[in-house]
Amino acid sequence: MRHTKVKDLLNSTTTLQEVNAKGWVRTFRNNQFIALNDGSTINNIQCVVDFENTPDEILKRITTGAAVSVTGNLVESKGAGQKYEIKVAKLEILGDSDPEKFPMQPKKHSLEFLRENAHLRVRTNSFGAIMRIRSVLSFAVHNYFQQKGFVYVNTPIITGADAEGAGEMFQVTSLPLDNLPKTEEGTIDYKKDFFGKHTNLTVSGQLEGETFAMALGQIYTFGPTFRAENSNTSRHLAEFWMIEPEVAFNDLDANMDLAEDFIQYVIKYALDNCGDDLKFLEGRLLEEEKSKPQAERSEMTLLEKLNFVLENNFKRVSYTEAIDILRESTPNKKKKFSYIINEWGADLQSEHERYLVEKHFKCPVILFDYPANIKAFYMRLNEDGKTVRAMDILFPGIGEIVGGSQREERFDVLVEKMKALGIDEKELSWYLDTRRFGSAVHSGFGLGFERLVLFVTGMTNIRDVIPFPRTPGSAEF
Ligand code: 4AD
Ligand code: MG
């Protein structure tokens, strides 16, 4: 007999004869009530066991984590909170789960403990909800761009380029590490390597994406990116997923419009399609808030926060204005920040970004026109000669969620900038072809997918919104 998803059973419009459900036992109460979950929804279906006619050996094997198959009628439930339950006629244990050994017991586990069990934590309500929301959000990303006629481009994972020029790359080699071939000068001879050159895992698909935008008009990438930055924070992963749209003929303003519209679309999509999971996570957060002192509690619930982003325009502020605000906010250099910005030209730290978003503007902020020297080489230089058409989108509780820019479309200006930064022109000759042949104004941005999932789920550690997190010193599973 084919099994029916728990979600479909719970959404049934009538009672049903003889249904079959398969899933994992969450709890088993009073030797009678199984809470069965199959991952299709946060909600369990209650299965009522005829314990008087079920052998003890079987009852004993109905333990948390066990896989079971239940067959019986779908009947109206007398219990509170559920419309239907299964009156079990036949029960089969598909896979036992030793209650002494199964780590995911029905009690509150710490997030740290769950991280150490990333392969099993998805069997908890919270992680089931997070991973379903993550899946829906990625579908929403594709939906948004596909509806607008963007072409999805798969940029390479292995590349010779350092798109961001930050040098935070994982090297890729097939050379024997204990016997590296050397050149006559004594350096590693990458000509003998698999690709005949030095390669690394991509930090961004942007440069390759630009070449496609200059032919297909509007493109987006959505794939894994890698950064060997040693930032052991709750916002950084060594392997994360990035969405990078790139659009020919868009200037920075159009780029901001696109980013704002896109983010609001995907958040709305989650609100419309993940109601039960979001409500569950909201409840979880409310519980957590209760343990905090009043002053530290969030003014908004999770759903209020998400709706707020939909209903309010993002505030657009230039870097220079932002610096003035930050300076004015610390008139006597009070210890508001651990690092005080005195000079125009300094990079903002996450504490400054969060001050602007959470305390000053109290809404998402798009910062633009950053000093050229703190941004990547490919950004369009402004007429002032010292700022570039960069934009970062800052979100409450997250900080930077998007980084993007209008690109430098002028061949000579770009080459000069590369020279000044010591970037090898020959290495990037293919990239410069976009400026050699039919160059045009174009813009794009990168959205860190996990930072979006963090925001939507209300979680606070990025390790909790990706199935198997990669962070410094940690690549288990
Ligand atoms: O600001 P970033 O470095 O920009 C780029 O890579 C550009 N090439 C994007 C573009 O214009 N096409 O990274 C973009 C976003 C950040 O705003 C952040 O959300 C996320 O990627 N991000 C990370 N997320 C998790 N862990 C990390 N280590 C991240 N580094 C960046
Ligand atoms: Mg950035």
UniProtKB/TrEMBL annotation:
Q: Which UniProt keywords apply?
A: Aminoacyl-tRNA synthetase, ATP-binding, Cytoplasm, Ligase, Nucleotide-binding, Protein biosynthesis
Q: What is this protein called?
A: Asparagine--tRNA ligase
Quaternary state and interactors = Homodimer.
Listed GO biological process terms:
asparaginyl-tRNA aminoacylation
- What Enzyme Commission number(s) does the record list for this chain? 6.1.1.22
Which Pfam families does the entry link to?
tRNA-synt_2, tRNA_anti-codon
Q: Which GO terms describe its cellular component?
A: cytoplasm
Q: Name one GO molecular function term.
A: nucleic acid binding
- Gene name of the encoded protein: asnS
Q: Which reaction does it catalyse?
A: tRNA(Asn) + L-asparagine + ATP = L-asparaginyl-tRNA(Asn) + AMP + diphosphate + H(+)
What organism does this protein naturally occur in?
Flavobacterium sufflavum
Q: Its family?
A: Belongs to the class-II aminoacyl-tRNA synthetase family.
All copies of the Aminoacyl-transfer RNA synthetases class-II family profile domain together span 131-467
The UniProt entry, under PANTHER family, shows: ASPARAGINE--TRNA LIGASE, MITOCHONDRIAL-RELATED (PTHR22594:SF34), ASPARTYL/LYSYL-TRNA SYNTHETASE (PTHR22594)
Name its cellular compartments. Cytoplasm
Q: Which HAMAP family match?
A: Asn_tRNA_synth
